[in-house]
Amino acid sequence: MKKRFEIEQIGIIHSPYKTKEECPIQGSLKPEVTGKIEIYPEYEEGLETIETFSHIMLFYIFDRAGEIKLSRSTFLDDAPHGVFASRHPCRPNFIGISIVKLEKRNGNTLEVSGIDILDNTPLIDIKPYIPRFDYVKNANNGWTEDKKIRQKPPGRE
């Protein structure tokens, strides 16, 4: 049985990227680029002690993603791959995740670097990146193992 869920926006992500064409494929390709995460005032208390972490995971909505296709090529490969075996933004629930470096907290605003998210993207959650829980020593890279990173995905050249 399918269920519907309602997710509440807790803030907004600000970045220098106004278009998909400007945005890097992954934040690690542009670690120097900064952005701001604005948490709505009613959620500010949830930021307590977040500044003790070096990195955070941002969960957001790909609100400007395109058509959902369950199989398509990616920025790493021209061959099609299932959307659940890729990080393509055009997914059934349009949920994105990015790990960014937390530079500073100013009240309900977080300054971050290594951002790879479009400006004015709806934020739905934040979790701390905890290496002892989130890093898996023997994890593999699946089909991406021998693929070179292209700066632009197909259709963005």
TrEMBL record:
SUPFAM superfamilies per UniProt: YaeB-like
Keyword Zinc tagged: no
Domain TsaA-like: 7-138
Pfam families: TrmO_N
Segments forming a coiled coil: none
Keywords: S-adenosyl-L-methionine
Family: Belongs to the tRNA methyltransferase O family.
UniProt-recorded name of the protein: Uncharacterized protein family UPF0066 domain protein
Species: Desulfofervidus auxilii
